[in-house]
Design a protein that fits this description.
64 residues; alpha+beta; three-stranded antiparallel β-sheet; globular
Length: 64
């Protein structure tokens, strides 16, 4: 089974587009450090990704 992954550029806001979660990359990294957001993993030295299922679960837990 292959996992689907998401990069920070798709996950967080940038100047040009809204991310999946409407916060800055710095907020995502702070949440990871605080243990509030799923930990990413490295595909290579320069590519860090999150498991899409983990991100979806995080979002679903915060829906009202």
């Amino acid at each position: 089974m292959s996992k689907r992954v998401i990069r920070i550029s798709e996950l967080a806001n940038s100047k040009d587009r809204t991310g999946r979660i409407p916060v800055s990359p710095a907020t995502i990294w702070r949440w990871v450090k605080e243990g509030k957001f799923p930990k990413p993993f490295k595909l290579s030295d320069r590519i860090t990704v999150w498991n899409t299922e983990d991100v979806d679960f995080f979002i679903s837990q915060r829906r009202g």
